[in-house]
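Hey, I was hoping to borrow your eyes for a little while. A protein chain has come my way and I'm curious about its shape. Take your time with it, there's no hurry, and the full record follows here:
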Amino acid sequence: MQVNDINKNRHDSLVLALVCFVLQVALAPNIAIANGHINFSLIYCAVMALTVGGGFGVTCGFLAGLVFDLSTTGPMGLMTLLLTIAAFVMGMETRNRLQDDMTAALILYFIVTLLVSIFYNLAMYLVGLSGSIVDMLFLRSIPTFFLTSLAFLPFAYHYSTRGSSRPLMLSQKGTRRGPGHRGGPYHLGKL
């Protein structure tokens, strides 16, 4: 069960936003494979969508896209649109997907990251800011996907283990609870 603590969500969101903003402005332009760079705005969007989700996650995705658009020379509003849609898709269930099922959350993240990278660079190609289809796909989209996915893993690990220390139930330790115990921590007796 996820407790929706709005003040904690806002605090965590602000701290993560500052970290990702500094990394986007200071680190991302300096690390590249071919013409692909890390998209820390997408990482911020994904963390907020996969941990909080809902309307708050979509708002964070919109703001992250806006910051990305303002800090690059690409078409204004394109990354804002893509990250808003990405946050909606990843945060539909309004639960902490990273803690519940990290494997499924990572698969969803990888798919969304690949699609965002391809659509962004395809739009760059269509407006004439990219040289060719080969440049768009193999020199921009795939390297951006690879770098952004690699940079997301420490964030995913941190947010999947944070706050997950639940008390261990007696039945989980391997001890028996007595006669009539049917197993599992949610036994309701003879109801």
Remarks:
- The chain has a mean pLDDT of 84.
